[in-house]
Amino acid sequence: MSFIETIKQRARSDVKTIVLPESEDDRTILAAAKVLAEGTAAPIIIGTEEEVMGAAARLGADLTGVQILDHTKSTEIDKYASLLAEIRAKKGMTFDMAKELITSDKLTFGIMMVKSGDADGLVSGACHTSADMLRPALQIIKTAPERKIASIAFMFDIPDCEFGEDGIILCADCALMQDPNPEELAEIGAESAASFEALIGKKAKVAFLCHSTKGSANHPFVDKVVEAVKIAKEKYPDIMLDGELQLDAAIIPEIGASKAPGSPVAGQANVLIFPNLEAGNIGYKLIQRIGKAEAYSFLQGLAAPVNDLSRGCSVDELAGVICITAVQAQQMASSKQ
Fold this sequence. Notes:
Elements: H1 3-12, E1 17-20, H2 26-38, E2 42-46, H3 49-59, E3 67-69, H4 77-87, H5 95-104, H6 106-115, E4 121-124, H7 130-141, E5 151-157, E6 168-172, H8 182-200, E7 205-209, H9 220-235, E8 240-245, H10 247-251, H11 253-259, E9 271-273, H12 277-290, E10 294-300, E11 306-308, H13 315-335
């Protein structure tokens, strides 16, 4: 069974409500119809009945049973505005300012639904930049109590691939942290290990990537990764991790054995931590496009499941991220019990 089919199966076991604020994008309508048909989530589309159902009719999408919310007419506007004004009071936000933002911006309205517990999660980014999508998520949802930062990971299911966990590899950070310092890079490694184990159910083997393997190059870029690995090993002794490792040393057994003998991770890594966003963004798009991989992005480290999409995502990828968000919501609810 593929990665995403396993996730769908888990999502069906306890169906969660997932907000989709980008009703103007056809992919949102089609993905909502797909998860409804598969029983993997209960989508809430933010928009007008006329807008959403008109798009569904044009696309031939069956949205029977979907919940549609007009954010300009909701009975919860004042409740959300009061909470948002409280959260952003130190930044000078008043109730009236909050109300204006909530009624003019579907994304902020949706994030307030999650913050208030009126929905279990949110998926956006098909027609928002990552910056525009992540700003309100970080300002309103904030990071989980045990985390200082958030990061964005991609789970890849690569066809006919022997690397990683039978072709399944998690990569981070690919879309958020521009140039993480050693402490932040170590935390991204910990977040990614936790995500891999929660979603895949197997032991994470984390490789901190670099253009050097075990001192083969001398440069401040290398020093940063070496320090991140040192911090990660001290702070997270239960995580199987190593670095600095070149990509081939991380995933190819014979090269790992040659370049990093004795490493617990070299040659068998299933979690790849990029040293900065430039490497991460280029790397994930190479895997996705040239490797023809299924790619599912998600946020790590937030206090509630709010996930960003690539604007180039397909309908199937969007539906897959909805399912991942539902499973994250299940796990967060379970951890609070």
